[in-house]
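FIELD: query
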Amino acid sequence: MSNSVNGKWVSSKDGSSAFLKFDEDGTLTGSDGGNRIATTWGSEGSGAVIKPFATTQRAVMGMEAWVGRVHRVEADGDVLTVFDHGGNHLGELAKDTGSNEPDEGR
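FIELD: result
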């Protein structure tokens, strides 16, 4: 499933390890910095709709809890805008340009 959201998107906030990774096979992995996200996604225009998922509710310093409320995303260049079920803007992630750091929660 080729789409402009394919790839890894990361937080630009200092100390944050939050990310979302969209694979071409429709799988999504991610983390808010303390809780792992694993689900699937479907293409929608320049973005994607995230299928419902269960996650733990740990609190960790530096985490970005809004990432765990993702329902829909839109890509515009190197910026991924994240929305919740109500269409509310939650935040933004930046296209990863080749980080060699391991994924949080793996």
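FIELD: remark
Residues 7-95 form a domain with the Lipocalin fold (CATH 2.40.128.270).
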